[in-house]
From TrEMBL:
Listed name of the protein: Cilia- and flagella-associated protein 61 N-terminal domain-containing protein
Annotated spans, Disordered: 275-380
Pfam families named among the record's database cross-references: CFAP61_N (PF16092)
Domain Cilia- and flagella-associated protein 61 N-terminal residues, every copy: 16-270, 399-555
UniProt feature, compositional bias: Low complexity: 292-312
Length: 1005
């Protein structure tokens, strides 16, 4: 909030924010004849659709006081191609060679209430420069015979044209420089006398360091500087407003053991004895246990065989930027905005003692895969193979940021520190910083690359890396030329889909179109005359299908975008040290291709699904927004005839998850959250929760983990063609829904069953040794079926249900028979189906289906469909807890009972399991005895049968809780202490709300 003065002497408290759609009407009312003279006739709605950045100044009543819209090409561009405005600028205006698409924007509209115009214009310029760190010039192009308003005259200065230029006769160009509104900080060596200025900044943000090391820790740190440890400050008008402490003391072995530093050569200098690849050995069989990096390579390999892809780390494994860039270029490098708070670096003295982590989210690309911790009971036989890790013999080439803090007012100038600290260590190429996972990603980190942690990472920190060459601000994006092919080939040779990329480049060189006539464009990004990025796009020919099947109008006004302005991104590769230029690369692709929207598809990876154009798994996915699918109307096409919708809309094609970026989003940041969110259970509630996180357009979650016995339920199994088969369909999600969500692109999956929770250490146990740490735990296991507890009654004594002990709440801990199945998901159903087909269908014996839910009827239907006669199927129902059946409708119950009777299925009611095999060894089940309200009975298997197939469907919460916030086996929020509020959540049918919030109990391990 800022106070501004008016020309009539009044003041107004204003706030600057990004423009919203609801502002259009008020912005339009602020336009007048003077506005049209300077900017031309403007359609505000259309302009906001195409503007890269739109800023609104509003007062305390949220009334629009001023507005500005900026784009990346000149206004009044009747004779200027937006893809080639640089040559126009250099040809006509003096002192313009420093202006590039990276550091320049053009003001297309500025309106304000007349009495606040001057102050609001200055506030808008300051906000724009702060929002775009690389921006140094804002241009205004207006007719030469038009006089600017006083507010614009005080902000913009005219640029001189060359004598032989005719541009000045028609138009005038004005410029506003960064230094006028948001100057760079002066960075110098820290002095002890800076202590008083700096300590107030530290105290405003966090007093932990003061409490730990005393009131003068900062002065002591400044005094302790030497050749290996430096402290610098950022100064503004003689006052220290920021502080950074850097050191060469780095625990390199710890970092190499915990993080995948391969793309950065292990933070070491190249050495001839480096071991960068394993000795060739016969290809081992792929195990169920694969890490995030392995899953990316596996998915890419599948995609390369003309199969659709999900998402891939297309970042390069080799740093190809020349190290010969001059010191002058580095010193002139553009520094950008950021904010931070104090964080500790990595040193030899630092140590972390935490539980082993599940696979963390990838930095550039997140390609989820089922992760099976070694020793997990569900997959105990499948041990993870040793993964090759490179060995680096060279010297350390990195220094670390130990402490960093900056005043909030100057947070956008955080990057000014980097150029100076790199000059302090001329022999180091990398700057690293570690931050706790609960610390929000402050602005300095937005220029760093988040490093992918290994599955065995024990650090509760995130590692970020910045390369010296990242300071270069000479990134140029252009259409590829035929002479670029060798450089492109060298750039993508380490990528799995490099052949597909090179084929597309060849097609572009030869015809500029695909064989089907679709236009194709290839763009390259280069720095210091070296190609560091590649992107391949095609025209989006299915835009009608996209509009009808996805909520694309959540992000754009569709009617303001022409058909040819929609493009489809197929391949994107950018050297990881220039990751912070990803959005600029995308912005330039839109400008140079005359597009306003780009789309990216993530296809399923089913073997039967083929796609003519394999997508590379793009690291740009982080900067795009997920588009929610739309519910579809099922049209009776034959009945509608000529009234049926277009085939472009109604055609049946492969479903895919859709991602999108447009001009409005190219300069809009996302909030990055590194907190470890662990969701237990792939129930409908769990999937819905994950869906909510994944589809947050302005938030990015880097550490989402799902713990589930069978992983994500998004893989169609061969024998179950229609849903789950045995289990009733909740109709919340189906295979198509999972494809449209593409949860595997964002969620790490740990295959296993949770057995305990340590709320103090904050981890869940999967076995005696395997633990998954969390910062926020969400329990969504749902109601699960488990093995019933036999009452042990002797049916020879003709006992009834009233005479036996109630064992409904007891847990069976004995030997589970091999021919007894508890069905929780399609993997369980598949195993049951396989067993039936191998051992039961063609033999004799009884199938006992035990339970009183809807699933016993769907299971009976499945058994009948397999060819099992009804006389072999026995539906045994335990006593109802409430007297209400699963149908809760007498007519339906009667109809189902008649259908079962006609099929020959025998049903029993109010039955309690007494024993298997008369109390002897239950494996395999050869007989089962039950008590009823009247006379007990026993079901036998035929002598020649392998055994009876028994589905025990008794819904209970199937996780072993000893003590803690659980009542009757269900999590209760009321029993959580204050320290756990906001950390521990539960939802779904297994949870219960408790009124007794006074009791506090802890989980006993």
């Amino acid at each position: 909030m800022t106070a501004v003065g008016s020309t009539n002497g009044g003041t107004e408290v204003i706030n600057t924010r990004r423009t919203e759609t609801s502002d259009i009407a008020e912005i339009t009312r602020l336009t007048n004849e003077a506005t049209e003279e300077v900017f031309g006739r403007i359609n505000v709605t259309y302009l906001l659709e195409k503007a890269n950045l739109a800023v609104t100044v509003c007062n305390e009543k949220n009334e629009v006081v001023a507005h500005a819209a900026l784009v990346d090409y000149p206004s009044w561009n009747d004779a200027i191609d937006q893809a080639d405005w640089e040559s126009w600028l250099y040809k006509n205006y003096d002192n313009s060679t420093k202006c590039t698409p990276l550091n320049s924007l053009f003001l297309q509209l500025l309106v304000a209430k007349e009495e606040f115009a001057v102050d609001c214009t200055n506030e808008i310029m300051r906000a724009v420069f702060n929002a775009v760190p690389d921006l140094h010039f804002i241009f205004l192009r207006a007719p030469a015979d038009v006089k600017l308003a006083p507010a614009l005259q005080g902000t913009f200065s005219p640029m001189a044209t060359f004598p032989d230029s005719a541009e000045g006769d028609k138009f005038s160009l004005y410029v506003c420089h960064r230094y006028q509104h948001s100057p760079q900080l002066f960075i110098r060596k820290a002095r002890v006398r800076d202590h008083d200025d700096l300590i107030t900044i530290f105290m405003r943000q966090d007093d932990t360091l003061t409490e730990t090391y005393g009131n003068y820790f900062l002065a002591e740190l400044i005094e302790a500087q030497d050749e290996e440890n430096h402290a610098v400050v950022g100064e503004d008008n003689g006052t220290a407003v920021g502080f950074m402490s850097v050191s060469t003391e780095v625990n390199l072995k710890l970092l190499q053991d915990c993080f995948d530093l391969g793309p950065f050569h292990g933070l070491c200098k190249p050495h001839p004895d480096d071991i960068l690849s394993p000795i060739p050995t016969p290809e081992p069989s792929v195990t169920r246990v694969i890490s995030r990096q392995e899953s990316q390579r596996l998915q890419s390999a599948l995609s390369q065989q003309s199969r659709p892809a999900s998402s891939q780390d297309s970042d390069l494994k080799d740093i190809v930027v020349s190290e010969q860039a001059s010191q002058k270029e580095l010193q002139n490098a553009s520094n950008g905005p950021t904010r931070s708070r104090s964080v500790s670096g990595v040193s030899e003295k630092g140590s972390w003692n935490r539980a082993a982590s599940a696979e963390q989210q990838a930095a550039d690309v997140i390609q989820g895969e089922d992760l099976q911790p070694p020793g997990t009971p569900a997959r105990a036989a499948e041990k993870k193979k040793d993964v090759f890790r490179p060995v680096y013999k060279g010297e350390l080439s990195a220094f670390c940021i130990q402490l960093f803090c900056i005043d909030e007012e100057h947070e956008t100038r955080s990057l000014d520190f980097l150029n100076h600290v790199f000059n302090l260590f001329p022999d180091k190429d990398f700057c690293i910083i570690t931050v706790p996972q609960l610390v929000p990603e402050f602005l300095l980190l937005q220029r760093f690359v988040r490093v992918v942690p290994f599955t065995t990472c024990t650090l509760p920190h995130e590692l970020y890396v910045f390369h010296r060459s990242g300071l270069l601000s000479t990134l140029n994006v252009r259409l590829a030329k035929s002479t670029d092919f060798p450089a492109i080939e060298a750039l993508v040779k380490a990528l799995d889909l490099h052949e597909s990329m090179l084929n597309s480049v060849t097609v572009y060189y030869e015809a500029r179109r695909d064989p089907d006539g679709t236009p194709i464009q290839v763009f390259v990004a280069e720095i210091v005359d070296q190609i560091v990025g590649l992107s391949i796009i095609r025209n989006e020919e299915d835009i009608e299908y996209i509009r009808s099947h996805y909520n694309i109008e959540d992000f754009i006004y569709f009617n303001h975008h022409q058909r040819e302005e929609h493009g489809h991104l197929y391949h994107f590769a950018l050297n990881p040290i220039f990751k912070h230029y990803t959005k600029h690369f995308l912005k330039e692709i839109l400008r140079l291709s005359h597009k306003s929207c780009l789309y990216y598809s993530i296809y399923p990876t089913d073997e039967e699904v083929q796609n003519p154009y394999a997508h590379s798994l793009t690291s740009a996915l982080h900067y795009m927004v997920p588009v929610r699918p739309r519910r579809q109307i099922v049209y009776p096409l034959e009945k509608l005839g000529i009234n049926a919708p277009s085939k472009r809309v109604s055609k049946d094609q492969i479903s895919y998850a859709l991602y999108h970026i447009n001009r409005k989003l190219t300069l809009e940041p996302k909030v990055t959250i590194n907190a470890r969110i662990v969701v237990v259970g792939a129930s409908d509630v769990g999937i819905s929760f994950l869906e909510t996180l994944v589809f947050c357009p302005h938030m990015r979650f880097n550490n989402i983990t799902l713990v589930s016995t069978n992983g994500l339920p998004d893989t169609r199994l061969s024998g179950l063609k229609d849903g789950y088969g045995f289990l009733a369909n909740s109709h919340c999600f189906n295979d198509k829904d999972y494809t449209l969500m593409s949860l595997r692109s964002w969620v790490n999956v740990v295959v296993g069953k949770m057995t305990a929770i340590d709320r103090t250490a904050k981890y869940v146990s999967l076995s005696k040794t395997e633990k998954v740490p969390y910062d926020h735990l969400v329990l969504c296991t749902g109601l699960q079926y488990q093995v019933p507890y036999p009452s042990g009654a002797d049916i020879s004594e003709l006992v009834t249900n009233r005479e036996i002990e109630d064992c409904s709440n007891k847990r069976y801990t004995g030997k589970v028979p091999s021919n007894l199945f508890t069905l929780h998901g399609r993997q369980d159903c598949q195993r049951a189906l396989n067993w039936l087909q191998d051992y039961f269908v063609h033999n004799e014996g009884n199938a006992i289906v035990y339970g009183n839910s809807l699933d016993i009827y769907t299971t009976a239907e499945t058994l009948l469909s397999l060819g099992i006669t009804g006389s072999r199927i026995h539906l045994v129902q335990p006593p109802l807890a409430s007297g209400i059946t699963c149908f809760n409708n007498y007519a339906v119950e009667q109809a189902v009972a008649e259908a079962l009777s006609e099929a020959g299925v025998t049903t029993y009611s109010s039955c309690i399991l007494a024993n298997w095999n008369d109390g002897d060894d239950p494996d395999p089940i050869k007989s089962a005895s039950f008590t009823t309200d009247t006379k007990p009975f026993k079901l036998e298997c035929a002598d020649g049968a392998e055994g009876a197939a028994a589905w025990i469907l008794s819904p209970l919460f199937d996780t072993e809780w000893k003590q803690g916030p659980f009542a009757d086996g269900r999590p209760s929020f009321g029993l959580l202490d204050d320290a756990q509020q906001g950390v521990f959540y539960a939802g779904g049918g297994h949870s219960s709300m408790m009124a007794d919030a006074g009791r506090i109990s802890h989980m006993q391990q």
